[in-house]
Every structure is written in C-alpha cells, then in structure tokens.
C-alpha cells in the first residue's frame, strides 16, 4: 500500500472509516472507533501503527512527554480520532503539533460522533 499517493491513501482511509461508522454509528468512545478502524485498515493491507509514541526534542533535550499519535498509516498519514460534538480549533492544533514533531505532511481528524462521517472529516496538510 505504501506506493499509493497521499490523495489515494486518504481516500482509502476515509472509505474504511465510513464503513466502521456505518457499522457502529455515533455515540461510542473514541477508543472503540480506534480499535475497529485499526483492525479494518490492517485487514485492508495497510501498515498501521497504533498509539505511536512521539517524543519532543527541545534544543538538545529529548523529552518523552507522552504524546501519542492515534494511528499512523504507512508512516505517512497521521490519524487523530475524536468522538465529540464538533471538531474544535484545539483538535486542529493537536494534529498540527503531531505532524510538525514527526515531520508528517498529511493528517486526518475523524470525528465519529456525527450522523454522517462525511460531516466529521478534516484533512490537514502542512
């Protein structure tokens, strides 16, 4: 799957996320969606890292601050899962921080607490 371009990768990730959302519906905990999407993406042939630790380097100091990427797909795309009323600016700041720290160019915020998952998708590119 790593030969796919960013657009194709995000499209496939979103398709899998929509299938998970259709099966489960809104209103569950974020951790439930994470486990199910992780399973679905792995089953689809993606290389997926769950709860990937993300250290912070400040000057020469290496800090393990407990940052964790929900899902990292093909070592390229950061997935931040939410189950909230709506995506807020703080959620965007969170994924941007992860992307900058890990030097990733593309991310997706997926909010599963919506009637249609299409309403809960935010693509982030830096």
Description of the structure:
This protein is α+β, with helices and mostly antiparallel strands. Helix content is 37%, strand content 28%. The chain has three helices and seven strands, in the order H-H-E-E-E-E-E-H-E-E. The chain has helices at 6-24, 30-43, 89-102; strands at 48-53, 56-58, 61-63, 68-73, 77-82, 106-111, 121-125. The strands form two sheets. Strands 1-4-5-6-7 form a five-stranded mixed sheet, sandwiched between helices. Strand 5, helix 3 and strand 6 (106-111) form a beta-alpha-beta unit. Helix 1 (6-24) crosses helix 2 (30-43).
Summary of the model, kept short:
The protein has about 130 residues and is of the alpha+beta class. It contains 3 helices and 7 strands; from the N terminus they run ααβββββαββ. It has one domain (about 5-125).
Descriptors:
single chain; 126 residues; alpha+beta; 5-stranded mixed β-sheet; 37% helix; 28% strand; globular
Radius of gyration over alpha carbons? 14 Å
Count of individual helical segments: 3
User: What is the average per-residue confidence, as pLDDT, rounded to a whole number?
Assistant: 95
Describe the global form: globular
Global structural class: alpha+beta
In helices, the fraction of residues equals 25-40%
N- to C-terminal distance:
22 Å
* β-strand amount: 25-35%
Number of domains: 1
Largest sheet: 5 strands, mixed
User: How many beta-strand runs?
Assistant: 7
**What is the chain-wise order of helices and strands?**
HHEEEEEHEE
Which regions are unreliable across 5 or more consecutive residues at pLDDT < 50?
none
The strand line-up of the biggest sheet is: 1-4-5-6-7
